[in-house]
Amino acid sequence: MAPVPISDIKVGHIDDVQELKKTKSPQIPERFIRDSTERPKLDKTDPPSCSNIPVIDFSKLCNGNKVDFCNEIFKIKISCEEWGFFQVINHEIDLELLDKIEEVANEFFMMPLEEKKKYPMNPGSVQGYGQAFVFSENQKLDWCNMFALGLEPHYLRNPKLWPTKPSDFSETVEVYSREVRKLCKNLLRYIAVSLECCNEDVFEEMFGVAVQAVRMNYYPACPRPDLALGLSPHSDGSALTVLQQGKGSSVGLQILKDNTWIPVQPLANALIINIGDTIEVLTNGRYKSVEHRAVTHREKDRLSIVTFYAPSYEIELGPMQELIDDTNPCKYRRYNHGEYSKHYVTNKLQGKRTLEFAKID
């Protein structure tokens, strides 16, 4: 069967990259072609996959001796100050559960387009199937299909967007999300310890009923990875982000370090953690959110499962007083987190520009 020309794809399919892959065209539509300044450099001079991002052994935080505990806390401090990212091993989430969430995510993305379109991501929304952060006809698109769901508090859930296929999708997401929520709560406690806060539960007490969402990203192989991006450069608006990369996926995550895009190679069975804009504000810039992006691969698909963990929308936030002094004056104003979240999801991804919402001039 001959490949379908891109020009013959029905309207409504043109932005679905899995459908575009089926055309087997060596080219990609103009709307996915980035300006020359934004295109990834994929030649042999690319830096090697980053092996310097700290690796935190969660078991030493929970069950290790005092020396092990202090060493891991120090690594958290360095990673949050210098990288904004770290990987967590021995995180106590069942590895079979990690395999299961990948399985149901892959099954969902492999369903026919008409089935997936029953759960549409409407314009201005960040829940459902489609592409988020798209606000204009001429905006460049990411080479990625997304499926996102609000999880906690329960009022954020839209039952119409929870798929009935695969049959065990909802149950798996529920169990997985409960385990990731526990991990986030513990990591925030250890981050507080790394900041030498008097109260290690300061974030949990401040956040109220924390907001949690999950987004599954599917990046098909792209015939022109030198022209497209899987996900535009951005920092996350959350407090913590937990990323699980599908086994066998291409390396896609890159972080901006010293003005250089560095690829991150996930460790087997590890979870990648990054701090979001909320932690940068609360720590008055001591711990900084980091700009990151996803690139595509010419031959390999990539799956990632991303959990966002953030304060309640009703909470007012600002820098913690104990982290403000003469050497580090207040950099951010106090604001309602719900207002910031609305600002974040109603603007396209543009590096760390959304954080300007909170900055003091």
What does this structure look like?
The protein has 361 residues and is α+β, with helices and mostly antiparallel strands. It has one domain: Sandwich (Jelly Rolls), CATH 2.60.120. The chain has 9 helices and 14 strands. The protein has helices at residues 17-22, 58-63, 66-82, 95-109, 113-116, 169-194, 202-207, 277-282, 337-345, and strands spanning 55-57, 85-89, 128-130, 145-152, 211-219, 231-234, 240-245, 253-257, 260-263, 271-275, 292-294, 302-310, 316-317, 335-336. The strands form 3 sheets. It has an 8-stranded mixed beta sheet. A 4-stranded antiparallel beta sheet has the order 6-11-8-9, with no helix packed on it. Strand 8 (253-257) and strand 9 (260-263) form a beta hairpin. The model is unreliable at 1-13 (pLDDT under 50). It comes from Dorcoceras hygrometricum. Residues 31-46 have a biased composition (Basic and acidic residues). Residues 28-47 are annotated as: Disordered. This is Fe2OG dioxygenase domain-containing protein. Pfam families: 2OG-FeII_Oxy, DIOX_N.
At a glance:
Keywords: Iron, Metal-binding, Oxidoreductase. Helix content is 26%, strand content 19%.
